[in-house]
Specification:
The complex is a heterodimer of chains A (about 475) and B (about 80). Chain A has 16 helices and eleven strands. With about 475 residues, chain A is an alpha/beta fold. Chain B is about 45% helix and about 0% strand. Classes of the chains: A alpha/beta (about 475), B mainly alpha (about 80).
Chain lengths: ~475, ~80
């Protein structure tokens, strides 16, 4: 059994059937974590003692033939933005809570209830406010396929640890692309659900109108399992949807014959030629798996992006107001500079962006999605940049540089739509990926398409040299 | 706890940014929400045109919205899917 490549589902089964103990699985993951952190700066803190103690408990429960959760004994690690009882999350920042948390964030509690064991808290962009993996406080993270290049952000550590086989899956968050970009950059998959599908209770807020919590994994089946576990109404998050949560895993093998994938050639045409070519390759794979290509058009993509900024920037500025007013020098230059912008956006413009959201989504559903089930878009507009190329601090080129990175992702958050990221076939290229943007609450069908795609383009683990 | 920054690329110093964050005595009037934090003129020269461009879109979009368009519309549209 190769613990680097095994899925969470298969590892849980192996633990249940006593082919391996949870203690062995957790110990092995902790060992891999060290090397990966040294190479790519993926970790903020480890939970070795607690994780090994939890693993022993699972092994005892297995020995006693007790009822076990679907992730019992499986080591996971998550972005360091979630409350955990008795701990202070770093938020990737110098500024932190003054007191330890009193309870777990709901997504963390739900994964724990399913039996998973958290072994570490992972690297993230400072306050999750940046799409590249740069962090001027705790150091920049590196891409495991080329350490001179960005790993994507802000859920950088989650994608790195999944890509390198430390853990099969990890949680992150996505306000403007922060699950999708690192997943694409590190050659793994992620699912940003419909806004409101997954509770944010106990997760560090960035821009509540846009924030989504979701999983990163190598195997789409693991995405389905984790997403199903963390989705669902939570009284601690008043925005969380009361819709029943489908059994995503049981629906993942549904046929995708005839599924209509929308292609906006004009919008895709704004990407680098290499990205366009690779997206076309993936589209042909989806067609071979039974999907149909339909021409579609987003009418207002750039307006959607602007409206997303008009939501995000003031919401971040407001959340960080108390810190910026007194402790601005403790921020890294990039985050401080971006927060400043939010203070200059008028309340009227922010309200317009909020009030327009339903109208804009309605228009996209009736026009762009009129004849298709989901839309394919690049995740990154360009081949992966180097860390140095985007090391722009808080300088004047900051907004344009980051705006290009999230060109295809931020409007999806504004619309509240779900998006599944899948890697392009790698061939001789560095990793990169595309996203399937679906109709509201259509995650089950998107995961089925992802599963069909992975039968042709299986997940891969980056082994340390 | 693993050592922070192990294996990382040392973050660059941006002295001009820090200076901008800490000075700004000659700054024009700033939003009260910034409190003691000041923003230098060089920074404002970047921020204000950017924000103005965003605002132009807000105005254009706002002119198309009915009076009763509401922030909760997004929830209604999302939840109406499939019903």
């Amino acid at each position: 059994m190769d613990l680097k490549t095994i899925s969470a589902i298969d590892l849980a089964e192996a633990i249940r059937s006593k082919k391996i103990s949870s203690t062995e699985a957790v110990s092995s993951a902790l060992e891999r974590l060290k090397g990966v952190h040294e190479a790519f700066n993926a970790v903020v803190s480890t939970d070795a003692e607690e994780a090994l103690a939890a693993a022993k408990e699972v092994d005892a429960a297995v020995a006693a033939s007790q009822q076990l959760g679907p992730l019992a004994g499986v080591p996971l690690a998550h972005k360091d933005m979630f409350d955990r009882a008795g701990k202070i999350p770093s938020w990737g920042a110098r500024i932190r809570r003054e007191k330890p948390c009193t309870e777990d964030a709901t997504p963390i509690a739900r994964l724990k209830a399913a039996g998973s064991i958290q072994i570490a808290a992972l690297h993230m962009t400072e306050f999750a406010f940046g799409p590249t993996g740069h962090n001027y406080v705790i150091g920049h993270a590196r891409n495991p396929y080329d350490p001179t290049r960005i790993p994507g952000g802000s859920s950088s550590g989650s994608a790195i640890c999944v890509a390198t086989g430390v853990v099969p899956a990890a949680l992150g968050s996505d306000t403007a692309g922060s699950l999708r970009l690192p997943a694409a950059a590190c050659n793994v998959t992620s699912l940003k659900g419909t806004w409101t599908r997954v509770t944010r209770a106990g997760a560090m807020p960035l821009s509540p109108s846009l924030d989504c919590i979701g999983p990163i994994a190598r195997d789409v089946r693991d995405l389905a399992l984790l997403f199903g576990l963390i989705a669902g109404h939570d009284p601690r998050d008043g925005f969380s949807s009361r819709r029943p949560v489908p059994d995503y895993l049981s629906l993942i093998e549904q046929p995708i014959d005839g599924i209509r994938i929308g292609v906006d050639e004009r919008l895709i045409g704004e990407a680098h030629p290499e990205v366009q070519q690779r997206l076309e390759t993936s589209l042909k794979i989806l067609e071979k798996a039974g999907a149909r290509r339909i021409s579609v058009r987003f009418q207002d993509w750039k307006a959607l992006d602007t409206l997303g900024q008009l939501l995000q920037l003031p919401e971040v500025a407001s959340a960080h107001g108390p810190y910026m007013r007194k402790r601005a020098a403790e921020y890294g230059p990039q985050v401080r500079a971006r927060i400043e912008f939010g203070h200059f956006i008028s309340a009227a413009d922010h309200q317009t962006a909020l009030r327009a959201r339903g109208t804009m989504l309605s228009r996209v559903l009736t026009e762009t999605f009129a004849n298709c089930d989901m839309v394919i878009l690049p995740t990154f507009a360009d081949p992966l940049p180097t860390i140095a190329e985007l090391d722009v601090g808080g300088g004047p080129q900051l907004m344009a540089a980051l705006g290009r990175v999230i060109f295809y992702t931020r409007p999806v958050n504004y619309l509240g739509l779900p998006a599944l990221t899948l890697p392009y076939p790698r061939e001789s290229y560095l990793p990169n990926g595309f996203q399937l943007v679906g109709r509201p609450f259509d995650e089950a069908r998107m995961l089925a398409v992802g599963r069909a795609y992975q039968k042709e383009v299986p997940g891969e683990v980056r082994t340390l040299q | 706890m693993l050592g922070q920054n192990t294996g990382s690329i040392p973050a660059k110093n941006f002295p001009e940014d820090i200076a901008m964050a800490e000075t700004g005595a000659d700054s024009p009037k700033l939003p009260k929400s910034l409190g003691e934090h000041t923003v230098a003129q060089e920074r404002l020269d970047v921020i204000l045109p950017f924000v103005e461009a965003l605002s132009e879109t807000a105005v254009k979009v706002g002119d198309t919205l009915p009076l009763d368009a509401d922030a909760s519309d997004i929830i209604r549209v999302l939840e109406s899917e499939g019903k």
